Amino acid sequence: MGTRTPLDTPLGQLHLVADGGALAAIHWSDAPPDLPLDPDVLPEARGQIAAYFDGRLTRFDLALAPGGTPFQQEVWRALRHIPQGQTRSYGEIAAAIGRPKGAQAVGQANGANPIPIVIPCHRVVANDGGIGGFSGGLDIKRRLLAHEGAPFEPEQPRLL
């Protein structure tokens, strides 16, 4: 990975990480200290994420370079097909990728997603409609789902 750039959002400051001109990761306020700061990198990603938070963008069209296993990549591709304002369960994602008994593995891949928001892991909820987990914390997941108008049961216990 090459450089990072900060981006102020309604959720706080995010750090976008570039790899060869593509978005490779988004970190919450804790920036990777070993990556050099470049405020001019990833202008398209910064613009699209800002438009998302302003309510002007519902689908990202960016060059992405998330590092992960082939299974994780498969899960992350499936996540990009969940429309804004909708959710899917871990089990539904597992079935969609041809692994109907793989809900727990989907949950693990979901949690390892290096590009949250753009690869919308926040749109995946527990099979019972409960909110499930999220790498950025459940408060941020609730805020993202509310921002998108997506249905979820915020107080259900977490069941895969």
CATH architecture of the largest domain: Orthogonal Bundle
Shape by Cα distribution = globular
Helix content: 25-40%
Helix tally equals: 5
Note the beta-strand portion.
Answer: 15-25%
Question: Uncertain runs with pLDDT below 50, 5 residues or more?
Answer: none
Query: Strands of the biggest beta sheet: in what spatial order?
Result: 1-2-3
- Overall structural class, as computed from helix and strand content, comes to alpha+beta
Main sheet characteristics: 3 strands, antiparallel
Distance between the termini: 33 Å
Write down the domain tally: 2
Could you name the CATH class of the largest domain?
Mainly Alpha
Number of strands: 5
CATH topology title of the largest domain:
Arc Repressor Mutant, subunit A
Describe the structure in your own words.
The protein is α+β, with helices and mostly antiparallel strands and 160 residues long. The chain folds into 2 domains: 3-53, 2-Layer Sandwich (Double Stranded RNA Binding Domain); 70-148, Winged helix-like DNA-binding domain superfamily/Winged helix DNA-binding domain (Arc Repressor Mutant, subunit A). It is 30% helix and 16% strand. It contains 5 helices and 5 strands; from the N terminus they run βββααβααβα. The chain has helices at 43-53, 70-79, 90-96, 103-111, 138-148; strands at 3-9, 12-19, 22-27, 88-89, 124-125. The strands form 2 sheets. Strands 1-2-3 form a 3-stranded antiparallel β-sheet, with helices on one face. Strands 4-5 form a two-stranded parallel sheet. Helix 3 (90-96) packs across helix 4 (103-111). The radius of gyration is 15 Å and the shape is globular.
